[in-house]
Amino acid sequence: MSTTARFRDRRVSLERRATTSKAVRESLVSLAGLIGGPVTNQAGEEVGRVVDVVARLYGADSYPPVTGLILRIGRRRTFLPADAVGKVHAGHVRLRTARVDLRDFARRPGEVLLAKDVLDHQLVDVDGVQVTRAADLYLAPLVDQVVLVGVDVSLPTLLRRLGPRRWQARPTPERVLDWQAVAPFAEQATEGPPEVRLRASRTALRRLRPADLADILEDLGRAERQQLLGWLEPEQAADALEEMEPAELENLLREAQPEHAARLVDEMEPDEAVDALRDLTPEEREALLTRMPADEAAELRRLLTHREDTAGGAMTTLLVTAGQKETVAQVRAVLAEQAEHRTEIDAVTVVDEQGRLVCDMPLFDLAVAEDTTPVADLVAWRAQFGPPVTVHPDTPLTEAADHLVAARASSVLVVDDSDRPVGRILADDLLDTLLPERGRLHFRRFLQ
Predict the structure, then answer these.
(1) pLDDT tens per residue across span 385-414
(2) Is 348 helix (H, G, I), strand (E, B) or coil?
(3) What's the angle, vertex CA 431, arms to CA 425 and CA 436, rounded to 5?
(4) Number of neighbouring beta carbons within 10 Å of residue 133
(5) Pairwise CA distance, residues 239 & 273, whole Å
(6) How many CB atoms lie within 10 A of CB 174?
(7) Rounded to two decimals, what is the model's pTM?
(8) Which residues form the CBS domain (predicted)?
(9) What is the pLDDT of residue 168?
(10) pLDDT tens figures, 213-228
(11) Which of 65, 66, 60, 67 is nearest to 200 (CA)?
(12) Quick check: is 176 in a domain?
């Protein structure tokens, strides 16, 4: 889909959302303006003052319904259920009846105090792919209940909140994010079942690319960063970690619980995992390795024995191998099983019965060949281009880069002294290693 088409689809989607409805916009109530406002009965007499608004943030509703208010009555703080609220105006609340049932407040699963847990806190703008802060929250009546429909992230709103009381209650929705485009963090909230609590956030976050998630993780505070990692599937989190700046990734692994950090590193590609482990102290590194499955930990320990500036220190051990007696269809089936590692595989290594290298078969050659074609036939055809370019684990990276450029390839194989493949160095890994001072390029941040 073209960029223009994506923006058009996003605009159409946004136009259907609640905050773009004229009727809803005209009835918006500022949470910041409501806090501290009076609560009156039907006779207009003040009963108390609003301390906070309770909403069911992690339920199945697209727009979280308000379930009640926290009131201050004299020196007492008490809970007023939503069914006792008649009308929520800008800056004050009117009760439905003269007699109200005031209860002690106890959080229920999924409930959040909007002023305490969300207002002025970090959140993720999923549509804009950025971390921002809630300057105000907007409520609106919807059918027979009051719901949370949007988040204001503009600087003028912060200034409005510093002004006189009459300004604070006036919504200024110049830059409002529709609630469905937000992944909030409410660290103090009572959590319901994970599949309910994470429904909206996971659906939105799955749309983001690993590089976008990496940007978000780098911008979040420590608590929010760990909470976001907990929301993501381990594979998705590992992909994002592979895109992070080394210093940020180092901090993240130190912040996380060792069991969680070990699980994340275990999900990363071997070469990326080794890079992450190298930045830790020997004690921290060992603490993670001992918490990984034995086979994976042994493989990473072996890779860590290679110097960082050598082919062995930059290679990935993820290889897809094939024998000459296999058919193209059989090799494709093996590749299909490795779909999650597609970015690490650009060729299939053909070996003989002793495991020695015969040919490095590009994926394009496999893609255009007939299913029934024996791999041996492709090997014979590739022979006209000469032997595959290889390096040894102790080959300096600068020399490996020269081989890669000379071969005009996207990767170079690493073989041992017996010519058995032990790894592969991809072009992007060479660039990351040889040009560390440039870091990763964040075009989105620069343009903003």
Answers:
(1) 888 989 999 999 889 988 888 888 889 999
(2) strand
(3) 125
(4) 12
(5) 11
(6) 11
(7) 0.60
(8) 383-441
(9) 59
(10) 888 888 777 877 887 7
(11) 60
(12) yes
